[in-house]
Specification:
This protein is an alpha+beta fold. It has one domain: Pnp Oxidase, Chain A (Roll), CATH 2.30.110.10. The chain is 26% helix and 30% strand. The protein is built from four helices and nine strands. It has helices spanning 9-17, 59-68, 101-117, 122-128, and strands at residues 20-26, 32-36, 39-42, 49-54, 71-76, 83-88, 91-95, 136-141, 145-148. A hairpin with a 6-residue loop joins strand 5 and strand 6 (83-88). The protein is globular, with a radius of gyration of 15 Å. It starts with 8 loop residues before the first helix and ends in a 15-residue tail after the last strand.
Length: 163
């Protein structure tokens, strides 16, 4: 198993707060798949990332993660476009449970705030992230690579350090 990437504390704080998350993977023929996550949970040290996807909207993405293990997650703060991309080659998938509800509720509240900061209503965030718990899956991974994807001269540069 690859080493975990250590991310800067301010970046972990942004990700942990709950910002926009897009999840991607690819099939064996390298065809991409992606979907917006409806929630996320970031371990304090960043060693474990969980993103929540609606199974009914993410069939190809989940199939690709299950068959390749590869996952990429892009965390982006709407008001500043500050963005980080994380990649891993080993992801696990499980059904979401009631124990995940606090993380999902916290994520929704944060995204309502984030969306308001750029001029949209909370209703927009609720519509964008609407889900049924029984339809959700949790994809968990340990980041192996991290990249600054904030628009500008550093976009694409490697982030973090290895232990």
């Amino acid at each position: 198993m690859a080493d975990t990437v250590r991310l800067p504390a301010d970046l972990l704080a942004m990700m942990s707060r709950g910002v926009s998350v897009i999840v991607g993977s690819r099939d064996e023929a390298l065809r991409p798949s992606l979907m917006r996550a409806v929630g996320s949970e970031v371990a304090t040290d960043g060693a474990s990332i969980t993103v929540f996807l609606a199974r009914s909207q993410s069939r190809q993405l989940l199939q690709d993660i299950a068959s390749t293990g590869h996952v990429a997650a892009v965390f982006s703060e709407p008001s500043s476009h500050r963005t980080v991309q994380l990649k891993a080659r080993q992801a696990s998938i499980r059904a979401a449970t009631e124990a995940d509800r606090p993380a999902l509720d916290s994520y929704l509240a944060s995204m309502e705030h984030e969306i308001e900061r750029v001029g949209y209503t909370r209703v927009m965030a609720r519509a964008m992230l609407a889900h049924r718990l029984e339809d959700l899956v949790a994809v968990t991974f340990t980041p192996e690579q991290a990249f600054d994807q904030t628009p500008g001269p550093r976009a694409g540069s490697t982030l973090g350090s290895r232990p």
